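Why run this: before we spend reagent on co-expression, it is cheaper to look at a predicted model of the complex and decide which construct boundaries make sense. The entries below are exactly what would go into the expression plan.
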Amino acid sequence: MRIRELYLKNFGKFSEKHFYIRDGIHVIYGENEFGKSTLHAFIRAMFFGLERGRGRAAGKDAFSRFEPWENPNYYAGVMRFECGGRNFRLERSFDRISKHASLVCEDDGEELSVEDGDLNMLLGGITQAEFDSTVSVGQLMARPGQELSETLKNYAANYYETGGGEIDLNGAVTELRERRREVESDLKAEQQKQEEKRRALFQECGYLERDMEKLKREFAEKRSAAEKAEKDAKRRQAEQARRRNRSVSGKNAPGGNAEKQAGDIPPRKSFLPGAACLLIGIFGVLGAQFMQGPGQGAGSVIPLVVRILSVLVLLTGAVLLTAGLRRKNGNVAESEESVSDTGDAEEQEHRLEMYRKEREQLRWELSRIRAEWKEKQIRLENLREEEEDVQQSGREKSLLKRRQAILLAEEKIRSAAGKLGQQTSSFLNRRASEIFVELTEGKYRGIDADEKLEITVWDGERRVRAEQLSRGTLEQIYFSIRMAAAELLQEEPMPVILDDTFAFYDDKRLESALKWLSRQDRQVIIFTCQRREGEMLHEDRTAKEGIDDHQ
Amino acid sequence: MRFIHIADVHLGAEPDAGSAYSEERPGELWGTLERVLEICEQERTDLLLIAGDLFHRQPLLRELKEVNYLFSELTHTQVVLIAGNHDHIRKDSHYRTFQWAENVHPLFESRMSCVEFPEFQTCVYGLSYHSREIREPLYDRCSAGGVRRYEILLAHGGDEKHIPIDRKALGKSGFDYIALGHIHKPQVLEKDRIIYAGALESIDQNDTGAHGFVSGEITDRGVRTRWVPFAQREYIHLQVQVDEEDTAGSVRKKICKLKSEYNNKNIFKITLTGVRGEDVVLDAGRMDDVGNILEIVDETRRKYDLERLKRENSGNLIGRFIGEFGEYDEGSLEEQALCEGLEALLNHKGSQI
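The model came back. Tokens follow.
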């Protein structure tokens, strides 16, 4: 495209002023304060509009800067240009009240719409940022505290990795990383919350387990108590039985073995021998009397013997009988003693009952403990299940997803930048080198940006790092990269606007730069406060027509 | 014969119900069951069918005693229940030994068994879970035995891990009514015949919508059922549209207004959509006037005109970045990543170098 005319109706210091721009290289010479920057800003404003900023920044933005000095409510201009063989008239007014833009094709009167992107299409889709970073060239400006070489490197990085459009790759990646950190810390807090829930459950499980352990111990104690009671009861029983036996045998046989054996005979039977003897003795005495009667002294020896024997037997019977009686009396005494023993037994019975009850109680307790334990066991298992079931909360899930998304975004940006970098850097390196070689008239053989985007120049013998180069040379690298980028990015060759770009160039290199520019199929507009450019172009007959002196 | 069919009561569960209602929620589960029993008593319902997961986990003895007492108070209704996956019958389950009241008839076998009610010519079939998962389609090959005039199947499951169900097979099984449980959302597989009653109360924040039970009647003319909404509260997911002008205060107001329109006794999950100013901090805690918001999901994002962005940035990183993403679904990780990346890139576009 080529700009034909700039008509500043009311813009900055200019009012009702026409500038006609010719094809080829057009130098606009003006001393300081002439309004070169205003013209530069006007071109920009016509292409991309001029929006009033908001807030604090508004005081310093372009809108305020070029607000007309007189009659600020009339803030407008016209640009006529040729594009693709057709002529257009673009009119804009910038003030708030009558803000509008119109675009008319002067050849056929067709009205086009800026709002619908017709102008943008004519401009080949170039954005303001792209315009600023390629064809609209000022001096290389370092930010405060930043080396010029650093500025150049950033500029190159932008082109090599982001393909222009003024995207701060590092800034974007850093922002993503910071966002990710934020999400991660939120995530941690959220997970902690869940963890606390889990821990609370775990703790409750712990309490339950302790309770169960206690129950278990209680159970063991009670059981051993029950076992002991059982054993006690058995022992008591056994002891009692034994004692009873012992008391019987002890009373019956206080003397030696024989009597103890006699004592083993039941008391009833001990009367029998005595009685038998008595009866036999009576029979014997009576028999002897009977035998004596009819015989009357004849042979009276036998009945006498019988009588004596009978008496003896009788006596023995009497003795045995009394012995038996005495023994019986002894038994009575013993039975009296065992009456007192029976009182003891009742008490024992009672005690046994108590043991039994106690045992019952213990048994009941044991089953209670067992039931309680089981209840707790089930509760514990339920809690454990619950602990396993504590799920990711919705928030945790969404945070996790966001984190994944940011990671993916970082990865995709890097891979996009990588691919773009490979593609653009080879072209940019090649094309920028060509331009740079020409500007330096072959002193340097090429520009090279490595993977870290360290810019070096090759002078045929050694690599020189950017920070070792002079200001002028840095400016020339910058210019070369810009021009290469402009070729790379723009479908429609836009005019190159050079705003005091050559201040640091020596004459030789300025000449080479102008030579290179005059060969390009682009309109070139040079704003300068020096006469060098104009003079040089006057000398150079090929570019003679392009000179215009506004002084 | 009139019946009520409930399922998934989940007694013992402690659903997250926001700060205001979480504490009382476990009690509400019992309360709602009691109210169902009151209905049974009032309407002299013949049969109460409980299609599994009466308890959320293994029932404790005291819980069984409690529920049995409630059942035993019914003077007319016969109760039939099965154990589901949540309260499945384990080796040491109290279900195995518990002595139920006379009107309660558990079908706790792992194989199909039935209980007959000659007084209303009905036979109810069912089986119980003896493990947490059953992957065999146990219901596919079962059919009504023809023991009684009316035959009902009490069944629990319907997903891959819990007795997968084949609708067609169930349809051909010959039961007059199939009372289903396990899926918490009420749904009808076949009208008046094969029905998920849904959970009696919602148990989880994803159990959105109304909950209740099925009330039905079987006569010679067939089965007629109706679904009765009965739960105390619902979980409601709401979308709140936010724009750039909104502040934390105005968003709060929007949320509170919308909530009260939907009745504040319910429990809410709020999703914020639209575009929101970067510096607005939406603190979920401060958005909740009643204490019935479970979660606020922030999905506010800049909506990008991708076509335009791609066109305008064809040569540079932004265009390439968009190009890195091929086809993706709405709501996918890719979409989110694209938005995150674009936001960062556009924030750093045009900053002067």
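The mean pLDDT of chain B is 90. Residues 2-229 of chain B form a domain with the Purple Acid Phosphatase; chain A, domain 2 fold (CATH 3.60.21.10). Bring this page to Monday's planning discussion.
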